[in-house]
Amino acid sequence: MKILIGKKIKVYGVVQGVGFRPFVYRLAKRYGLKGWVLNTSSSVEIEVEGEEKNVEKFITDLQSKFPPIARIEKIEVEDSLLNNYQDFLIKESKEDLGYQLISPDIAVCKDCLRELFDPKDRRYRYPFINCTNCGPRFTIIKDIPYDRKNTTMAKFKMCQDCEVEYNDPLDRRFHAQPNACPVCGPKLWIEGIESEDPIKETIKLLKEGAIVAIKGLGGFHLACSATNSIAVKLLRERKRRRYKPFAVMMKDIDTVKRYCYVSQEEENLLDSPQSPIVLLRIKNLGDISEEVAPNNNYLGVMLPYTPLHHILLREADIPLVMTSGNLSEEPICQDNEEALDRLRGIADYFLLNDRDIYSRYDDSVVFALKDKLQIIRRARGYAPSPIKLPFKVRQTLACGGELKNTFCLTKDNYGFISQHIGDLENIETLEHFINTVGLYKRLFRIEPEVIACDMHPDYLSTRYALQFEGTLPVVMVQHHYAHIVSCMAENGITEPVIGIAFDGSGYGLDGNIWGGEVLISDYDSFIRKAHLEYLPMPGGELAIRKPYRLAIGYLYATFGTVPKLLSLDRISEEEIKIIKEQIEKRINTPFTSSMGRLFDAVSSILGVCNEATYEGQPAIELEMAIKDNNSEECYTWEIEKDNDTFIVKVKPLFEGLLDDIGNVPNSHISIKFHNTIARIIVNLSTLIREETKINTVVLSGGCFQNRVLLEKSLELLEGEKFKIHIHSNIPCNDGGISLGQAIVGGRVGS
Ligand code: ZN
Ligand code: ZN
Ligand code: FE
């Protein structure tokens, strides 16, 4: 007699909207099991009964053969009583009080692509083709469970053919919530133009040099031909973006390889389900306009990731500039009406569709450091996947920083970092921030018990947090400490570390602007063990936009006089005099230990960049000035001890720099400067290790987006046998601090 057993199984993770239930169904059928599977708001629940060995095989396969974009976090199996089920069924979703992980939007899969370009397929050239293995998820979901009625696809009633696929457990589109076809699904049109084939028409317009706003997955792109300098220039003017590089979309890997160097790792990233913008070293720009990425050695490239992009790029057969559809500093446009209104002055035409975007979702930006992913902007494809924390944290809302804002909500041992929100400097972005906080709270069933924020009183994120004072505890977390904790958590570190936080600006405990900090940190507190000496920022914020003010300020503070420099030639005597006065009388002149500002000052001293039109431009162009980084040479520096704190003095560095100017090319001065900073990192780490016996070094802060600095620092630290941790899945820039804030905030008083 065959012995039958029953098991009840709960599967947690990214298991909804990713073809998991059909997978379970097929598996159950294969092993002749009876029972059911259903989605709850926290998991997929399964009950099976059958022969013991078959049930065991079923459970093994369940954990090893799941669909490509699913992610299993946890499986619970318990015995259940036999119910004598007659069949295996997929049951209706059931709500409980839990929550589930939600899949990010995923690039169109190979099966859908094949159908898309198959003239005999009923979805031939249908720009909204998708299946359970690909397509929109996070951008269309309003609430859980992830069912069509809870998405922006609810308004499209499936035709018979689609309905059949949707209900067939053996079909690739079984319960594919955004399932659609040309008969029943979303449609494309060009605003104000009657056209049989809006895609062909768009290509014609792009080739004529037009700027077209194209509605995509999580917002609008502004597109133009990347090979047409006049069009790219026009886009720069209209978008008020003078130098910041534009991303380019290319039709396939072979095309990318014509223009850029592509390592295996970079190829994998470009072609991944996330399909981010990957920063690639330029080989030969060829017919691509210089205007696309001025003064840059890298090009941000992505492959088509929606069916619409695939058709466009394949049929246009030219690289397209694809930049977020916004005015600089504002959030990406989301609705048709909003785009028509806000992008009216930028785009000549609008390629629209009637599938609504529920959440804005920018393109993610990454680079590969050898074989390690480095995320610079974390959005499409990555958010809202949570970061797994090394411990449980109270439910906390951390409001993040100002530039490149993200927020973070914690629950259990997850940190849900929002997608890139933007520079939180205006009402539009604040609204986007508030709406997205609401969405995450709802989707993940989080009710914060603590609010965490930066210490900067003027950040909109801080002001938002302070509204909760009196109702909830508000914990202000020092900016650089948040950077370090974020990197510790991402790496699951539990011991104290030497935290190197090098970035632009962050509010310091002493009211000065910090940014060249070495913090001995654990999750509960930190000691500021070393920092760059304080130097003046004449004019405050103005000095960030006009780095020659920093150059003059730093030189004057160091030498008591401003040496004659070619790079400062065009600055009038009058302005120099005012700057000196500002420093002497300390008028609107904060002091900073920022490493980012030191890069700015050096960039200006060398005449590389005297005006920042986007954040980080002087430092980026200083890095880009390096033509050959095979040099070990460096400048000198001094370290002074003030009580227990090491202070890095830059006078010898500036002396060396001034000696070299005019005698040595900027390229070489720049590499020497980068080497110097890397050596300072090792010098400080070694001094601190001697004193504290701590051997683990963590690198965080926006300066580590600089590849030369990052590589040199790693190399030298490895040489000294430090255990080193850097970011990977979380930006090292301010897009990453919300996680650190959430952890520190969530632990206070718990
Ligand atoms: Zn697909
Ligand atoms: Zn249909
Ligand atoms: Fe920062």
Number of helical runs?
A: 22
> Strands of the biggest beta sheet: in what spatial order?
6-13-7-8-12-9-11-10-14-15
Low-confidence stretches: none
Shape summary: globular
> Over all CA atoms, what is the radius of gyration?
27 Å
CATH topology of the domain at 188-365: DHBP synthase
Largest sheet: 10 strands, mixed
**Which cofactor or ligand species appear?**
zinc ion, fe (iii) ion
Name of the top-level CATH class of the domain at 188-365: Alpha Beta
Helix content: 25-40%
Strand count: 30
Straight-line distance between termini:
56 Å
Strand-pairing-aware structural class: alpha/beta
Mean pLDDT: 95
Give the name of the CATH architecture of the domain at 188-365.
Alpha-Beta Complex
Share in β-strands: 15-25%
Characterize the structure shown.
- By secondary structure, the chain is an alpha/beta fold.
- The chain has 22 helices and 30 strands.
- 32% of the residues lie in helices and 20% in strands.
- A hairpin with a 5-residue loop joins strand 22 and strand 23 (513-521).
- Helix 5 (198-207) packs across helix 9.
- Bound molecules: zinc ion (2 copies) and fe (iii) ion.
- Residues 479, 483, 503-504, 506, 701-702, 734 line the site of fe (iii) ion.
